[in-house]
Amino acid sequence: MEIKKSEFVISAPLVSKCPTDDKPEYAFIGRSNVGKSSLINMLCNNKKLAKTSSTPGKTLLINHFIINNEWYIVDLPGYGFAKHSKSIKQRLEKMISSYILQREQLVNVFVLIDVRHEQQKIDREFIDWLGESNVPFTIVFTKSDKLGPGKARQNAQDWMNKLKDRWESLPPYFITSSEKKNGRDEVLDYIDGINKN
Ligand code: GTP
Ligand code: MG
Fold first, then answer.
1. Does the residue 1 lie in any domain?
2. At what angle do helices 36-44 and 184-196 cross, to 10 degrees?
3. Looking at the 3D structure of the chain, how many domains does it have?
4. What angle do CA 90, 94, 99 make, to 5 degrees?
5. What is the position in ligand 1's atom list of the atom closest to the CA of 75?
6. Quick check: CB of 63 below 6 Å from ligand 1?
7. In a mutational test of the pocket of ligand 1, which residue from 28, 29, 38, 182 has the highest number of ligand atoms less than 8 Å from its CB?
8. What ipTM goes with this model?
9. CA 132 to CA 112: how far, in whole Å?
10. If residue 65 lies in a helix (H) or strand (E), which one and from where to where?
């Protein structure tokens, strides 16, 4: 699939303020600074679409982008940013969980994981919660350019294998670099496959 058109629609503080049509949507979530906004821009070939920053905690609202006038990409705030105050963290957690559980148009959640790091408790808890809640999700490993391709593949494989202690069937996963545009076709084809079903 090619993305011919990508446009910002709305930044919403609540699920009730999100677009009201019934186009399918795909959300991108993960720890603060993992590269959600950068990945969205890479997929859309549009560096200015989602706001990125080297300072974690940039995205604080539910951001909708309309793609080819047919479906939405949703950029969510990161979870687990230590420097946010307790009240901001709680507000963001509530925003993210109510969006994921209530949003009927949500087709798939892409959970982003920095491929350089060991499995972190907060990511694992989030993924277990998605599984328990029967939310369809896919893992996207980010920043693979920071490792060699062999090492990135190995880390991703090890990371996925750790899920086997609890989950029998594992979700699909992709290895990406927004810097090098790696994994773009794979992620877009995956979305296309779902949209066509
Ligand atoms: P929050 O909105 O704060 O939760 O962050 P985010 O997950 O949207 O991350 P963002 O896309 O803003 O990127 C965070 C930092 O990581 C920026 O400095 C990016 O340039 C960098 N970054 C993102 N993706 C990649 C990548 O694939 N490779 C490299 N080398 N750097 C990346
Ligand atoms: Mg962001």
1. no
2. 80
3. 1
4. 155
5. 8
6. no
7. 38
8. 0.99
9. 18
10. strand 62-67
